[in-house]
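User: Can you help me understand a structure? I only have the sequence.
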Amino acid sequence: MFDFSKIRTIDDFPSPGIKFYDITTLLNDREAYHEAINDLLEVARSVRPDVVVALETRGFFFGPTLAYLLGVPFVPIRKKGKLPAATFSENYNLEYGTDSIEIHQDAFAPNQRVLLIDDVLATGGTMSAAVRLVQKFNPASIDTLFLIELKFLEGRKKLDNVTLHSLIQL
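Assistant: Let's start by predicting it. Here is the structure, written out as tokens:
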């Protein structure tokens, strides 16, 4: 298991009362990042996905690497207006308002096994929107994978319709 102490914790970021888990320190440590990728890859291999989908931005630190190592395509989910071709869009709630994410309408074929990855599962709003995007393709299955799950925020409850994997639960 990768060394969780390699992830820097910053109190009161981005706002008071929030504890932010900064994975840039993990990414900057060759051995720790290698271990994290290997741990994620072990879970990903058990899922046997046909495609890996990751959320902008921090999911991109893991998704393309896992897709490459698995020998499957990588599909990005990006913030609204960042993808050049026709997209599907989903809104989700933020603390103060809403935001939107998108996926290309031709991102992958129906009936595929999808591995959807991000760095942290917090409240589950963004990943829930990502799951709704992926469901538009009528996948055979959807598995979600996170480096860290913040259990006290109960994001898992918003993802009860998919299989959820997380390396570390806090």
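Now, to help you interpret it: Strands lie at 8-11, 19-22, 51-55, 74-79, 87-94, 97-104, 113-121, 141-149, 163-169. The first strand starts at residue 8 and ends at 11. Let me know which part you'd like to focus on.
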